[in-house]
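How it folds:
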Amino acid sequence: MKLSSREAVPDGRMSLMEHLRELRNRLIKAILGLALGAIVGWILFPPIWDFITEPYTRIPPKHCLGGNCSLVVHGIFDGFFIHLKVALIFGAILSSPIWLYQLWAFVAPGLYRRERRWTYTFMAAAVPLFVLGGALAYLTMDKGLKIFIGLAPGDTPVLVGIQEYLGYAQAMLFIFGLTFELPLFVIMLNMMGVLSHQRLRKSRRLLIFGVFVFAAVATPSQDPFTMLALALPTIVLFEIAELIAFFHDRRKARRPDPYEGLSDDEASPLDLDAMDAELEKGDRAR
């Protein structure tokens, strides 16, 4: 039986061509998963579109044409492209376990056991944080719309294009979702020893200021309510990340240093254990 390139080499090392073939196979599987998800999204377009446009229906009726808050199609092909874009967005979300697994399966063999554990933790926390950010964006979308559409003089109707609204909704969902991932990156950097709690504590004021500046620039509507809706929860998440970094650094400081008392040319017990494990793995492979 012929072994795959990953199975043939115990430590996961491959040649450049093997890496390219592995990447090609992973990409094909990820694209197939995206295509299947997009087909489902195309079929389920009506309920998905009703869910996306529901915040728009909550704007003041006096600014809707005939009291009916509906979007406007400006071009002949807008309807098709909206179907396609919504189907792809839904497909990317629905097939996320597939393409995330393909990404993980391509990267994981080159990671150490400890790094793999961090990645598992990261992936387990990343999805709920993104969903939480997207849910908050969905709940606040109508507030920004009401502020700016409400500035129209008198009972002037506001005609919003279907492409324009979808771009706004898509930007809100992704910006909120990705921003909520930033504190998780801070925790991962602290776990890897790149960013200490002491440095986080010293940079707290600068970090809070940066969050407000980012929220003011990144939000599509850039109104005060949406800016605060993004900035305040993000600051709370950063405070939680700092607290986790504090306990992690304090626990790490209590651990004994395996290199203490060793000369420069003497191997530590951890290095010897790792070497023995690699030799044992090579013997089993033979």
The two ends are 15 Å apart (CA to CA).
